[in-house]
Amino acid sequence: MATLATVQSILKTYFHAPVTKQINEECLLFELLKKKAVTWMNNTAVVPVQTFRNRSGAFRPELGVLPDPVALGATATLGYSNYSVNAAYAYGVFRITGQAMAVGEGGESSIVDVLESEIDGAVETIVNTVNRELFSGNMTIGFLHQYQNVAGATDWQFVGDWAKLALALAEEAVAVGVGAHIRRMDTYANVLDVHITNPNEAAGTIRITEALDTTVGAAMPQGVAFCVELMTPAEAVIFDALLAGCPNTADAAAYGIMAGIGQQTIHGLNRSAAANASLRSFARTMGTAGAQAWTVLDPARLQVMNALVFKTSGKTPDFLWMGAMTRTEYAALMVQTAGLSKDTSKASKGDLGFTGYSLNGVDVHTSQHCPEGCCIFMTTDTWRYVDKGEAAIDETGGILQRENNLDSYKGMAKYYYNLVPMQPNANGIMTGIRYPLV
After folding, report:
1. What is the pLDDT of residue 187?
2. What is the torsional sign of CA 245, 247, 248, 252?
3. Please, is 307 exposed, middle or buried when counting C-beta atoms within 10 Å of its C-beta (0-12, 13-18, 19+)?
4. Which of 46, 304, 383, 401 has the greatest count of CB atoms below 10 A from its CB?
C-alpha cells in the first residue's frame, strides 16, 4: 500500500507543475485579458478608475489660459474614483480514499493513474467555474427583454446564467424562491424587488411572483433591457423573512462580463449615482416595438450597439460572444445564395457551414458558458484581472490532508482573483435574440 508520504511526493513530482500549466492554458481569463499589478491589504486592493474622459482639447489665443483636463471651465477633480476590489476564492477539490491508495501495491504507475483521474476532475471543475463566472459574475444572473405590464405571477423570457440561478434556488431551498432586483439599464435604478421561481431553460423563462411593469408606466424607452441581480443574504432577509439564513454563494463569486455591464454597485461604486454615470454600460434588446419578445437577429441592431459603444467610449469592441445555438441564427443570415459551379466529372465534398463568423471584421466567438439569446460586445483592453498568485494545487501543510473520521485524504486546486472593468462603457450586451429552444 502506498504511504501518504509516497503519494505526496508523486503529487508534487507528476502533477503540481502540469496542473498549474493546464489551468492557466484553459481559463479564458488568461487568454483574453491582461493582469493588473496591485497591492493587497489583507483581502482588498484599491484600483483607481477614471470616471471622466479628458476633454482638454481646445484652441486658445496667444497667452490664453490652458483648458481644464476634465471639462472646459470646470473646477472639478481630475475625474478618478477608486474601486475597492476583494479577492474571490475559486476552488476545485479532489479526494483519495484509503482503498485507492491501496492500489499503490501495483507500483508507482498504478497510484499515478488513480491520482490522475481525481485531479483531472478537480482541474476541470475549477476551470469551468472560472470560465462560467467570466460571463455572468457575482450577483448578476442575466437580463429580461420583454416590454410589458403584468398583474401577477408571470413567466418572463430570460437570458442569463441558468446554472447560477439553479444553485441559488437549491441553496435557499424555500418555496418562495430567491430574491432579486430588477433594474432598468438606462439609469441603473432598481424598478422592483421580486421573488424568482420555476426556471425553465428549455422554454427560456423564469417566473416572477410579483406584478411587474417594465414599461414603467409607458415612460420606459423601448429597446432597453433590464438586469436581474440576486440579493445578498443581508438584503434578502430584509425583503422576505422566509429567506432568513439562506446562503447565497454567488455573493462570494468573482465579477464577470454581465456583472460588469449590469450590476448596480461594482467594487464599491454605485452606478445609479450621477457621479458614476460614465461607468455605465449598455444593455439593449433586439426587439424595439410591441412586447419585445424573442426577436429574429437583425444585423442593423447589432450595428446600433457598436455605434453606442464607440460614440460613448471612443472604442470599438474587439470580441463578440454568442452562445452556440444563438450563433446558428447568425449563420442563417449568411447562407450563400449565389449560384455555384463545380466539376461534375468526379466526386466532391459538400460543406454547408462556415469556418468563422465576424461583424465589421470582429470575430464572433462562442463558449459553452456564454448565455444563449444574446450577443456580448467586449472591448478586451478595458478589462483587467487581479490575483494573489497563480492558480495551482495548494501545498499548504502538504498537498493531501487527512479527513476527520474518514479513510480518505483531500486536496485542492485554488485561485484567488477578481475581474475589474476599467472602462465599462466600452462594453455592452444585445439581448432577446431568438434562438432554437430545445
Report:
1. 92
2. positive
3. exposed
4. 383
